[in-house]
Amino acid sequence: MIRDIKGLHHITSMASEARRNNAFFTETLGMRRVKKTVNFDDPTVYHLYYGNENGTPGTVVTYFPFPDAMRGRAGVGEVSETQFAVPEGSLSFWQDRLSAKDTNLLEADKIFGANRLRFIGPDGEGLALIETAGDVRTAWSGAGIDDSFAIRGFSGARFRLHDTAATTELLEFMGYQRTETEGAVTRFVIPGGNGADTIDLEALPQTPFARQGAGSVHHIAFAVENRAKQLEVRKALMDTGYQVTPVIDRDYFWAIYFRTPGGVLFEIATNEPGFNRDEDTAHLGEALKLPGRYEPYRAQIEAELAPLAA
């Protein structure tokens, strides 16, 4: 069994318009944009990262905003809900704030005993705020939202699957422990994690497969401390039969990827070197940062990218 997973590292989704995406996460949800860069495979598209002040692993949601991308179709074989932790007693604040900003499909309920507020993002993505006791992670304080309400980072994520058996086996191999079941949903928790500790598997055997597009999660990343631990995890996965990519340098972390039995793309990402490797913490996310191979084409790339502010 793997013992080096620390919880979630980041979750990467797709969007259809960069300015609207940036405004929603920085203004409506009050997160910090910690990096403004480009898709490593298509430098005409932004890669935007939102998190806490430092972009701590377990707090960062990222987006590829493909201009005018077709909206995805919800279904099985995907991460269906990205869940953020907020302090206990804060959901009435968030309900009022999101209602005032015309956020769609607000729904308050409980999940495994915790209060939850579900809603959808600008491209129809499934999002939730979950009241979480004792979360000591530091929220971003520059967004004008009082610390007693502000997002701490991820709580976890929910998957929709036809059959959860194989993914259950994988998560347990990765160090997660099965804890509770409510209806068709089973919760898994990583002991001693980074706060972004839970994965919920929802079994929907009759639901059609999802179609990726704007609003869909592209991949979900799990955190390890460093490259040495990442190589140990890679070997363990390959020894178990998973087809895992070589290590890829993503500038702010190193990454490996593999496809799960349920169809979800997993990444294992390192906590090092972090988002302050190429800009001071006080100015994270302000300048456009490019991978070295694209730097000679900066003028052309900047001309093709739409401004994030009016």
UniProtKB/TrEMBL annotation:
Q: Does the keyword section mention Oxidoreductase?
A: yes
Statement: the UniProt record of this protein carries the keyword Glycoprotein: no
- A GO MF term: dioxygenase activity
Q: Which UniProt keywords apply?
A: Dioxygenase, Oxidoreductase, Plasmid
The residue ranges of the VOC domain are: 7-132, 153-271
- SUPFAM superfamilies recorded for this chain? Glyoxalase/Bleomycin resistance protein/Dihydroxybiphenyl dioxygenase
Q: InterPro entries of this UniProt entry?
A: Extradiol_RC_dioxygenase, Glyas_Bleomycin-R_OHBP_Dase, Glyas_Fos-R_dOase_dom, VOC_core
This chain's protein is named Ring-cleaving dioxygenase protein
Organism equals Rhizobium gallicum bv. gallicum R602sp
Organism phylogeny: Bacteria, Pseudomonadati, Pseudomonadota, Alphaproteobacteria, Hyphomicrobiales
